[in-house]
Amino acid sequence: MIMKASTVIAFLLLSVAAASDTTTAQLAGGDTPALTEAGWCARCEGKWNDKPSGCAEMKKEKEKHCNYDEDDDDDDDDKERKKGCSRDSDCKSNEECSDRDICVTKEKSSCVIDKKKPLVAPCGGCEGYEFKVFKNDAKCRDANDNKYEYGGFNDIKKFSKCAEACVKDGDKAYLDDLKGYEWDCEKNKCKCLYEKGTLKKTGDYDFDDTDYEGKGSIKKSKKSSGWVCAKGGIVAKKGNDVETSRRRGLRASGV
User: Is the pTM of this model over 0.85?
Assistant: First the structure.
């Protein structure tokens, strides 16, 4: 009898320990899972309005603390999401190859992307500059979350035309420090992003701002509806096969 009682007690103790270790323990008197803040961010990413999972109930309290822009290479909860890639064709039909060379679910954007990777050269025989979407509905940031200084253009109605404006119409002396661009598809504005301290002359641009601290490659982004953050740089010497733009005067006149 004593042996049986000991066995039952040991079983109960193990059951209690297992229950206390789970991240989905129930809150007293309710059905909402008791997760850590990081747990809620991971559980509800992309589905904060979902009621059965409890995300909708916790959205107001938890979503603002989540940072989905930072790298999260140590997460192992989504193996397919972490599949390595070098191009979009390496991924599933509903995925694309991200800037970190892993397959991620394609994002829905409020902007239409006419060319996914515009390639532009400032002249025939010059090195080409290739750009690609870093984040939809967002503005670009460096590794320390800083904005970049910029020179900008008005009346830019396509994603690829923003690339052309930055390479062809911006000051050529600054191309080595061109980090990417931000395109506003709602107001047709284009901002060419540069390393801090790059812009000395701004006469080639319609507007500018040199007060920001951004340095190095684009690493993060900040949510902003209607904007597209594009990252890019020199890729190759292509000659006349590289996509080149018409002069800005022609574009402004609607040609």
Answer: no
